[in-house]
Amino acid sequence: MEVTIKSEVNEAEWNQALEKSEFGTVYQTTYYADSIREIMKEQPLFISVEDHGKTLGQLLLFKTCRFHGRVWHKPLGGLLVKFLMKTRPLYHWHFGPVTLCTEERENVYSKILDAVRSLAQDEGTNISSGYPHPLDDKIDCFNAIGFESKEAATFVVDLTKDVEQLWRGLEKHSARKNVERAGERGVTVETVEDEDEFHEYFNVLNETRIRDHVKPYRYTHGYKQWRMLSQKNMMKCFVAKNGNRTLAGLLISTFNGYLNESGAGQSTYAIENKLYANDMLKWHIIKWGHEQGYRHYDLTGVNPNPQTPKEQGIYRFKAKWGGRLVTYHEYYLKAH
Hints:
Layout: E1 2-6, H1 11-18, H2 30-39, E2 43-51, E3 54-65, H3 68-71, H4 77-87, E4 89-94, E5 98-99, H5 105-123, E6 126-131, H6 139-145, E7 148-158, H7 163-169, H8 172-184, E8 187-191, H9 195-211, H10 219-230, E9 235-242, E10 245-255, E11 258-266, H11 268-272, H12 277-291, E12 296-298, H13 309-319, E13 324-333
């Protein structure tokens, strides 16, 4: 077996290989790599394990820098990031490694992790976070190579169930009833098709962040990533509306049968008028995902041991959609 690390790969070959594994997601595609390189100015690295020309495993790794969150959105932030990647580098990844063989899966998995460790140690830097696919967390492989970890969790809805099963899986009073109420109050769900519609969604997203005392996102970055990924059929933006008013929205990544959500927002108007827009939105996406033949809908993370009222509220909301609680780990490695 040979391990290679490249800064560029053949787009079709890399992405088609991911589709051979049930654990290949958008976060390991070249399309996602291009969006992060363009927007965040991070450097993607493509790690492969091959045997006699056959690809056995892959990992999309990102090289970034310490203080990235403080500098990349500033004037000349891209240049600062490039400079700091040379002097204060960090590595991270999401939803990998992805193994593509039925035999020696753990051996391939371990070879990729060992290559990441060697890369980081050669530069004397840390791996700030490494998230495996929630359904493919090989903790023994990580432990054997010296990674430390902390527990993470998410809810995953099985979209292969029929619609009636999915509906019955929702909590009766806090989910099904709210979806019915939203419908009675005129809430509908649409797919965003152009920039004007995306701008309305983004306003709701940032309204939510301001309400939660979190720094708003930059519109240009959000729009650029949605446009880049949606043009490749890798992302959808769904919005709940009441007439012409946008009430709530979600971004959904769409690749290889696995849906992930991000960018959740709900307007103060929807909350104050009890329109249950987020509930209608969630149920619509579950039905849509089932109808489109997707296998899983990942609600993208909860604290497995929620402490604050906010964390507890998020946990309750995500728990009520009939998904299975999946615990896995976030891994990190400090330079020695």
